[in-house]
């Protein structure tokens, strides 16, 4: 036993000696090859002794970067006195002072955010929030082409759109009136955006639910033995076309004659309908929690109504009974607008994203054809807007705004029934494109009639004012005193250009005359809107003696794009040079001072 223990003891001593030797060799190698200061027993930058200091003890913070050859960042807190009025906390590093970006952002109206890419965090700083312009050459503007950048617009999703009317097929605006009204500018923009998207976006995928040409209608589920559905030839003798006739209970408690589907992406419903009685169409939407939400499209003049929490009604108009009409609905937009009646807009948007369409149902006695679900139906919505403008143009040729507008309370106010040069101009641009596509004279005639409002001075209820009794200005808001809103004026010029280019005869001649007067004015007044750092929205500081109204960056970008467009149709270097300078403002380059 003692000899055995001695052997064990000697073996243990040998192992310990070996380990110590290996450790020392490794220690020497590390000390020789690694200059990482974190391996030092004492970090010199932490050797701060404040024991003898009296009064304020500066707080010192360090930031470590664990790469070779780096040094710690050391800074002190410092109070920054702002114009002698208040202070914010900053940090001092030698002679450099760092102030919180939250303060800088608000004080200088700049923008920034921390972004991650390639595994690294970076701070992205921007002088403006609209500084992205195309770098590649853009197609030359055409009155039959895309309207500015309206292919990026989604008018129907705007918070100030109450819903898309089932009666008129166009947006109802809550701007300046929470009850809702038909705002001509918004309607024109709705049509122009869908026309532009039609030209830009790929052709939509379409799922045909019913085309009236099949004799097998087994996809349609009947709710009871009394209900009927059959194929028949269209009663309109000039059409060699099959339709589907249906007959079931009118009651909304009845499930109706239905066809199942499960669609999330194909959420635009299109169909041709003719109700013999007060029938309806119901779309079943499965919510994220599995419950069903029902959207009922009924022959009623009530625009929109929510009953309970899951039954939403859109009126299609009582006068549609007994006539064929085409229905196009953005189902998930309709769904979200209904949710807005009971939830916040943020929550409604989340609920919209988790919804899917599960069934289409019809009730009453009627006929249907061309029932489809698609990703979009832009041209249907475009013509809904164009046809609305034709139907509702008044005898003066205008589309009055039927709510009062207080641009500046008690200074610049408009009573209900005012006209807008921007509304007239964008409506003309829409109608010109409807004429180009359809060759239907009613659209170009309506556009020509819209010129009459330009003949009426703003002081007498029209849209044309004069600057210094010399220059004709077409007012977006025809107030007294004049406001001279720049973007609205240039939109009217674009509409006039579209019409003079695509119309013929007297319409073209009159449009050209009004356009030329406006361009003369723009060349004389454009630089009045240059602030040296951006642009003015209007000239209230001149006409009403008020503080200047600076354009937000999104409006400033609109100004640039409008000037660039007009530079394509007028070679005056004023336009191109001004646009480039205004673009530079968005990157922080200011005009020189004295």
TrEMBL record:
Catalytic class of the enzyme: isomerase
Membrane topology: Single-pass membrane protein; Single-pass type II membrane protein
Principal location: membrane
Top-level lineage group: Eukaryota
Catalytic activity: [heparosan-N-sulfate](n) = [heparan-N-sulfate](n)
Domain D-glucuronyl C5-epimerase beta-sandwich: 241-365
Gene Ontology terms: biological process: carbohydrate metabolic process; heparan sulfate proteoglycan biosynthetic process; heparin proteoglycan biosynthetic process
D-glucuronyl C5-epimerase C-terminal domain ranges (all copies): 393-583
Keywords tagged on the record: Isomerase, Membrane, Signal-anchor, Transmembrane, Transmembrane helix
Pfam family for this entry, one: Glce_b_sandwich
GO annotations of cellular component type: Golgi apparatus
Location of this chain's protein in the cell: Endomembrane system; Membrane
EC number from the UniProt entry: 5.1.3.17
Pathway where it operates: Glycan metabolism; heparan sulfate biosynthesis; Glycan metabolism; heparin biosynthesis
Gene Ontology molecular function terms on file: heparosan-N-sulfate-glucuronate 5-epimerase activity
Family to which this protein belongs: Belongs to the D-glucuronyl C5-epimerase family.
Name of the protein described by the UniProt record: heparosan-N-sulfate-glucuronate 5-epimerase
Taxonomic source organism: Crassostrea virginica (Eastern oyster)
Protein's gene: LOC111135825
